[in-house]
Amino acid sequence: MGSVVDKNILIFCAYILHKKIFVCYHYDEVMKMLLKFTIENFEVFQKPVELSMEANLHTRKFLSNVVQSDQGNALKSIAIYGPNNTGKTCTIEAISAYRNVLLNRPFRYSANVFSESTVVNLGAEFLSDGSRFAYSFAYDTEAEEYQKEHFGRIEIDEHGNRKEIVYFERDTKSKTSYSSDERLADIIGLSSKDSILIYSFDTSDFPLLEEAKYVLRKFADSIVFLSMNRISPFKTIEVLKNPNTKEAKKVVSLIRAADLDIDDFKYAESMEIEIRPDEDKDKDERLEKALKNADRLMDQLRLISIHRGRPLPSIKFDSSGTKKIVALASYIVEALEKGKILIIDELDSGLQFKISREIISLFNNYINTSAQLICTTHDVSLLDIKTLFRKDQIWFTDKDTDQAYLYSLALFTAEKAGIRTESDIIDKYSKGAFGALPDPSLVEALISVSEED
């Protein structure tokens, strides 16, 4: 076992995952997986871009990284690279805006500032319980109203031919609409521009609209967003308040595996923890001040890590990286257990590179049957198509004076770009072979200013 720990800090190898830590059960959850997401005229993106999580099975490598279905083969994870301010976080925000709309929440984002149009277009294709659906909308950010909507179920036959059954569509600007439900078709024109169609009527009177509402809300509920720069431990705290559950045990296992110095981790109802009297006075004062704060801070103080048999308050003794793993652990477990789509901005922020790698490996593992991970990162050590990723799992953002771009490593083929499975992707990325690399020239910039002065 020692040799495994030396190679993989998290001890997430398939054998241990299967035998001891993570055996996934999906209960009554409906499988929901993202296949494609399109963005147009949203913040940094002006022209249409598409993020695809649909695997091309002409490439047979790493099939454990793919959930296969006759209606679409979904990648279990993707990583997005790119310089700052080129669209990584914007891609995540676009998915967040889409999710908010599906949950009947306000649209709080802007159209591209360099565009003459104020209309944002967002759309997705996704799997839900074995069926493939497509839903898109156009939202006018100035008039604050929905201009277009389209929802349909897509059927793909054994030859790859697509057929779409349109449940409904409407265009409030041209005042045209359609539905395969004749009763619904008669009243779509009366729907409000202030909300999408599933919230404009009592859906119980219209079976197709009711199904659409169920499918879209379930899909939206499956999407979870995290920023590693703002992540909090409160979800983990709630899980650990019930220490005998399978979920809590898996969270503790993950935390212990991520930090080799932690023997155990728990939520202590009482504050009977051992603190030596000769410890740093400033730390004690901060701890005493925190004790006087609200209940949520008290909950953080009750997180106890056991180091060599000694119970210690995690908030005081654990590193910032360990605290992020503590906060992240419950989201990872929930995603794998319930088939969630976990979207993490800046995955590598504060984490040791092997931990980031093992988190991705956990999602790519054969035990994961319906969870997905989408992350942005600057960690070039993850650019590994020999042991970690398929080419279609690595994405880049970039921009020039005209527009922003979103594209996959899969576009760089062996024939056209010399990118093969044995290629050193890190070296090629560092040399700018894929674009998506800043050229700050900081030294030259400072020297030129000094010379001017």
**Percentage of residues assigned to helices:** 25-40%
The low-confidence runs, each spanning 5 or more residues with pLDDT under 50, are 1-28
Output the radius of gyration.
Answer: 24 Å
Largest sheet: 7 strands, antiparallel
N- to C-terminal distance: 61 Å
What overall form do the CA principal axes indicate?
Answer: globular
Sheet with most strands: strand arrangement: 2-1-6-7-8-9-10
How would you classify the helix and strand content by structural class?
alpha+beta
Overall pLDDT, averaged?
A: 84
- Give the total of beta strands: 18
Number of helices: 15
- The percent range for strand residues is 15-25%
Structure summarized in a few sentences:
The protein is of the alpha+beta class. 31% of the residues lie in helices and 24% in strands.
Describe this structure in words.
The chain has 453 residues and is of the alpha+beta class. The protein has 15 helices and 18 strands. The strands form 4 sheets. Strands 2-1-6-7-8-9-10 form a 7-stranded antiparallel sheet. The radius of gyration is 24 Å and the shape is globular. Mean pLDDT is 84; it is low at 1-28.
What brief labels describe this structure?
7-stranded antiparallel beta sheet, 453 residues, alpha+beta, 15 helices
Q: Secondary structure elements and their pairing?
A:
Layout: H1 2-7, H2 14-19, E1 32-40, E2 49-52, E3 66-67, E4 74-75, E5 77-81, H3 88-102, E6 119-128, E7 131-140, E8 145-156, E9 162-171, E10 176-179, H4 182-187, H5 207-221, E11 223-227, H6 234-240, H7 246-258, E12 264-267, H8 281-291, H9 295-301, E13 303-307, E14 310-313, H10 314-317, H11 320-338, E15 341-345, H12 353-364, E16 372-376, E17 394-399, E18 404-408, H13 414-417, H14 425-430, H15 442-452
Parallel strand pairs: 5-16, 5-17, 11-15, 15-16
Antiparallel strand pairs: 1-2, 1-6, 3-4, 6-7, 7-8, 8-9, 9-10, 12-13, 13-14, 17-18
Helix pairs in contact: 3-5, 6-11, 7-11
